[in-house]
Amino acid sequence: MQQTFVQPEFRVRIDYDKCHKCGRCVQQCGWGVYDFAERPIPHDEKCRACHRCVTYCPAHCITIEKNALAFRENDNWSTNLVKGVWKQADTGGVLLTSMGNPRPYERIFDKLVLDACQVTNPSIDPLREPMELRTYLGRKPDAVQVESDGNGGFRLAEGGGMTNNLKLDTPIIFSPMSYGSVSLNVHRSLAMAAERLGILMNTGEGGLHEDLYPYQDHAILQVASGRFGLNPEVLGRAAALEIKIGQGAKPGIGGHLPGEKIDREVSATRMIPQGSDAISPAPHHDIYSIEDLRQLIYAIKEASGYKPVGVKIAAVHNVAAIASGIVRAGADYVYLDGFRGGTGAAPAVIRDHIGIPVEVAIAAVDQRLRDEGIRNQASIIAAGSIRSSADAAKAIALGADVVAIGTAALLALGCHLCQSCHTGKCSWGITTQKPELTRRIDPEWGAERLTNLVHAWSHELQEILGALGVNAVESLRGSRERLRSIGLDEHTCRVLGVKPAGM
Amino acid sequence: MAYDLERYDTFDVTRYRDESPFKIHGGCGLMGICDESGALMSGDVAIRAMAVQRDRGNGLGGGFAGYGIYPEFAELFAFHMMFHDMRAKEEAEALLAASFAIEVAEPMPTRPVKGITDAPLLWRYFLAPHPEVLEEREMSAEDYVVQMVMNINARVDGAFVASSGKNMGAFKGVGYPEEIGHYFRLEEYEGHTWVGHNRFPTNTPGWWGGAHPFTLLDWSIVHNGEISSYGINARYLEQFGYTCSLGTDTEVAAYLFDLLLRRHKLPVELACKALAAPLWSDIDRMSADDAALMRSLRAVYGPGMLNGPFAIVLGFNGGMVALNDRIKLRPLVAARSGSTLMVASEEAAIRAVMTAPDVVWAPKAGEPVIGRVAGMESPVHSQLHLGAAEISCAVTGTDVSCEESLEVAV
Fold this sequence. Notes:
Chain A is an alpha/beta fold.
């Protein structure tokens, strides 16, 4: 075979003076970087910079460096583009990648700032005053109807109140990641954490493993185009159902879980033969229009005993009109996934060039639903990518009811964003089904770290609310008056409904 | 009454829209008193209550509303008007004459008071809509009156309707409230319910219409506070067609009451629970029925919840409602003496009026204090059917809220 032109991205440096020659790096690496001949010998070309070996080296003698090969300067042909051409000339294939769009598009969240109270209204101390984050996810009536209770008081009139909503203790939930793309221990960690936090995890399109049945009240079950792992019995178990139309990382693209990842457990959960490829078509083949979607929403409601049914879409140009149609089709929530959202595997060209930022999607959808007077009829979940509690607060101020975190949750479990999930060799045991790797995540440990993360962000949200002088998250939700932009152009400001700083 | 009419030909003051391109911040003092037996008390009571709270304002706005003050015209709509010039007066009067039988048209009784300058022309009219016009237009008298208010406020440059309810009136202007009260000779009126307000705006308004109370037919609202949730409250109301064009919290509160009480027909106790919602931890401890009701109220009306420091008094023909924010960040004290219920920003105001109150208490956060005059209806404009755009336009008279609604009205 011809020598590839693509040189290793990283250099593995081992300080052999300090090295214990224990071989732990060899054992830890899922990529097969190391040989061992009296001492570890790295093969740089296999390194993904996931830092598993670095983290677990007892002598702290390993470091990973960029292989900073000099090319003649060229602003037009970035090294990445050049390497892409070489790789495709080698293979004739589509370039695959994972996790969210890393390219230097404008990050709108980073150009928005929040308000605080000074003098005319007081800020509130979240350490001493109640600071409420509870959120109800789902369709709400436009008005509450009451009747006399006969004792001088009032009670809800029949059908006059909120029904079928999911109570969340904090407006942060876990985003869909399927069993198959991530390991069962990751699912266990997410489910246990969701229960402890009073929030929801989301099965993704791979079904609900029976080990997760004890946590089913905290699980959204996804109905994706492959319809894996679904039957009336499982539909009846989940807290809510979610029709997945699209994903921010790969709008308009289906999925393909190779047969080698379909072991006995995955096969049982997905309800497909062991070893067979799990192919999710690009569209649902029974949804070619909004009226088809309506039929599926109601079919699922019927089959599940009228659980809330949401619809997840990728944020694309016409997202506001699409979301309006989804709400009118009967969805209880709309899940907006921005173009920075993660994936377990996607063509790089799709991930990096399709879709719009979630910030503008939230703003456009929230405003459209208000303009049409149907904002109460559905909640908005925003994701892709929420990187911090600040992003969460800004997303909520733009109009999201709830934010969902995927990448951040995986980071809590050890992910180092090496963007190699699609290889199935994740050294951290997250996006792999290899038993020797998946056992690296103890669900109890994972659940604790996820719980810590969401607790920490929730505390930070409370601090932000306190500075804003409000003590309930519903008073921030959609309150764009509390946001200002720095350095965003006028058109984007108008779409966001946000004034520039100083106004 | 000797008006220097010449002066008004060149009178020029800004209105809300000019005054507040952005949100106005402000603190204030307020009072409300209601004799639930329906017995009448002099407006002097309200003046005294506000005079001791002088330091809560800065002389840039004071006002009152009295109920039951026009028993001789109880069935007529009482229009308290402000005109910036004679032309505005003539135009507005022409509009009124075309639509109403004008029983009385007279200048508001005033007296010169040190500190009160630049008053607009102040007139009052007692009106009855022509029954045949109502029949022809298939409108209730209340609808018709609100449309007229909207027309005058939006169409007639330099004219503003300060109040338009029956057997009530608003008296307001730029100055300290006790000065405004003396100026309007408030001690000569007798009412069963009074509300008063002292404004401390952080800008420099020169327009008399900008003072509190805000009114809509026989509702009046006085408000001390700063709604930190203004942004979402305004967006929520826009969803129902209201236009929050003033950038004031009071406007938002007025529309929320209109939405909850009149359009969604919630009892006033529950409307208050929606606006100053109990904490979730309290809701969770309620009985199952109450908890279900409160959960629904909070989840459905969350975007309308008034969050941030406020104390507010809604006056109406039949009583008043006083409400504090959900963690009591602005003062509100209440007292009862026999059949008289009183609220104020400071206890001093209560002591200035009631020599020996039976009980004085600090209402708990979010717990409404409700005074109901025996035999009168609760605060619903039952015959008002107009939409939000018309309500917005009537309250503010600004262009932005009126463009659409005026099309319909004419």
